[in-house]
Amino acid sequence: MSTENEGNVVPPAPSAPPVPVESPAASPHQAAQGGVTPPPPSAPPHMPGAYGQAGAPGPQDGTGSPADGSWPPPSSYGVGGAGGGSGWGSPYQHQQPAPKPAGRRGGLVAAVLVAALVAGGLGGGIGYTLARNGDTTSTTVSASDTGASQIKRDPSSIAGVAARALPSTVTIEAEGNGGQGGTGTGFVFDVQGHIVTNNHVVAEAVDGGRLTATFPDGKKYDAEVVGHAQGYDVAVIKLKNAPSDLKPLPLGDSDKVAVGDETIAIGAPFGLSNTVTTGIISAKNRPVASSDGSSDSKASYMSALQTDASINPGNSGGPLLDARGAVIGINSAIQSTSSGGFGGSGQSGSIGLGFAIPINQARYVAQQLIKTGKPVYAKIGASVSLEGTTDGAKITDQGAGGSDPVEPGGPADKAGLKPGDVITKLDDRVIDSGPTLIGEIWTHQPGDKVTLTYQRAGKEHTVDLTLGSRIGDNG
């Protein structure tokens, strides 16, 4: 099925992938979010909030997807090996190692990771149960207090940052009408009671389900979904009867983050609420396509912050902080190598490859959701191929559902782009594939002016264009 994406045109859904997750994607073409709507990638590696266990069906045809940044159709996830061939990657639980970069950022298309969402199963699974019912029969009796326990920690230390941030984070439990759901994390966005989290954390509760948010002090509040953006994987919920003493977490500037900067992640891995882990920024602008692995799942695209801070199922939606305690990202996905997580839950765990949505992008999306309830995506108005190549994002010969590959009167059309053109750069960012283009377009806002570099008939051209807009995940 084809749909129109934020960035352009939504590519037709890829054919259903063979049972083996490692088999190549049935179809190499999908629409790119940045102007063309790309089809969903194959089941991603284990994401912190992944609910499903099986890979999403592969593409149904070979059309392209919109590159404007809109999400791909439900069946557009190919099955291919991780980052290799024409597929988006093997299922989130059995991801193949990413191929070595081909001389470009992140290995180009090979580096477009199909990551798994990181929301934990409802109830937190075995880990949560063990934590609650741990052995309490043994008691330690200490000697008289000599003053050694009176430790004063530096406010700028990790312990100091955690002490300030934890009270403004919540563990979210989402339950659908059918009883299905999961556990994730969120953080206080404003004093009105708005909580920012991942779309995949609250997806089950969007249509009449139940949401609760529990603070570290044990206080639990019912909540409702204010708005959610599938393509961005960002959602905003609001506490009912919110307390008057909420303290929003300070937001940092993700554009100024540098590789090597310290990071602190807060979440509820495998249901273990209020867990703090640390690491560094391993890479920036990492092209990542993620989904929850379910059969009707649609892909989310991001130009992510990569971190080696331990992130596991249940960390989804939680804040990624810098050393000062400012939020620089929203933990959303992980690359994993195997199935079977803590306590044999069937969910893979961290191998040091975590991905977060940059807060500059998430802030904009959250503000739009609070204001109108719907996301706004930037687009170029062209359908691009999601084929596994490192040459760039190629504008397809046919758009989704037989539509024009270049939207008449759209940004790409006004700039003179034509089917067959291969976009290789957006401003100073190297574009190695359709998914990368989508992620980059979505880091911008409608009305932004960008410079595209593209190849036509072996010659390189450069053109300036103003990004258009698309409102909502389905329009």
UniProtKB/TrEMBL annotation:
<feature type="compositionally biased region" description="Low complexity">
    <location>
        <begin position="134"/>
        <end position="149"/>
    </location>
</feature>
<dbReference type="InterPro" id="IPR001478">
    <property type="entry name" value="PDZ"/>
</dbReference>
<keyword id="KW-1133">Transmembrane helix</keyword>
<feature type="compositionally biased region" description="Pro residues">
    <location>
        <begin position="37"/>
        <end position="47"/>
    </location>
</feature>
<dbReference type="InterPro" id="IPR036034">
    <property type="entry name" value="PDZ_sf"/>
</dbReference>
<keyword id="KW-0645">Protease</keyword>
<dbReference type="GO" id="GO:0006508">
    <property type="term" value="P:proteolysis"/>
</dbReference>
<dbReference type="Pfam" id="PF13365">
    <property type="entry name" value="Trypsin_2"/>
</dbReference>
<dbReference type="Pfam" id="PF13180">
    <property type="entry name" value="PDZ_2"/>
</dbReference>
<feature type="compositionally biased region" description="Low complexity">
    <location>
        <begin position="48"/>
        <end position="64"/>
    </location>
</feature>
<keyword id="KW-0812">Transmembrane</keyword>
<keyword id="KW-0378">Hydrolase</keyword>
<keyword id="KW-0472">Membrane</keyword>
<feature type="transmembrane region" description="Helical">
    <location>
        <begin position="108"/>
        <end position="131"/>
    </location>
</feature>
<feature type="region of interest" description="Disordered">
    <location>
        <begin position="134"/>
        <end position="154"/>
    </location>
</feature>
<dbReference type="InterPro" id="IPR051201">
    <property type="entry name" value="Chloro_Bact_Ser_Proteases"/>
</dbReference>
<dbReference type="InterPro" id="IPR001940">
    <property type="entry name" value="Peptidase_S1C"/>
</dbReference>
<feature type="compositionally biased region" description="Gly residues">
    <location>
        <begin position="78"/>
        <end position="88"/>
    </location>
</feature>
<feature type="compositionally biased region" description="Pro residues">
    <location>
        <begin position="11"/>
        <end position="21"/>
    </location>
</feature>
<feature type="region of interest" description="Disordered">
    <location>
        <begin position="1"/>
        <end position="103"/>
    </location>
</feature>
<feature type="domain" description="PDZ">
    <location>
        <begin position="378"/>
        <end position="458"/>
    </location>
</feature>
<dbReference type="InterPro" id="IPR009003">
    <property type="entry name" value="Peptidase_S1_PA"/>
</dbReference>
<feature type="region of interest" description="Disordered">
    <location>
        <begin position="390"/>
        <end position="419"/>
    </location>
</feature>
<dbReference type="GO" id="GO:0008233">
    <property type="term" value="F:peptidase activity"/>
</dbReference>
<protein>
    <submittedName>
        <fullName>S1C family serine protease</fullName>
        <ecNumber>3.4.21.-</ecNumber>
    </submittedName>
</protein>
